[in-house]
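Data card: per-record layout.
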Amino acid sequence: MKHDVHLPNFEDQDKLAFLIFNVFTPDECQQWIGLSEQRGYSTATVNVGGGMSQLMTDFRNSDRLGLNERLRFLRYDPGQYFEPHMDGEFHRNDGSNEQSFITIQLYLNEGYKGGATTFVHYSDCTRNVPCVPRTG
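The structure for this 136-residue chain is written out next.
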């Protein structure tokens, strides 16, 4: 089932944002979680542009595990967070000039405090649009 997200800022109305539910079954989500736990996590860094990333624990403090160039599993333990931000694009540095244009997030679990992805209004936080995680 697809659900359109109405972004809170007028200048973003032409941008694409939607939710799709049940991409994975709960059992498949548990399998992905188990695989990521087996592989282990490293501290997540912040993309600072120019193909560089930096550890900035005052801005983002979560653990991640990467299976390929851009696929990441993020795990937020109690007290971990990612401050409000705009996702940046990824530029491949192999001479191909390829870059990313979209972000896809799949939630593998739910039932915890916090964790919503929130589309932030630039000047009025009462107009923020939170998207509460659902398994799958």
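Known properties of this structure: The radius of gyration is 16 Å. The CA atoms of residues 9 and 123 lie 9 Å apart.

See the next section for split statistics.
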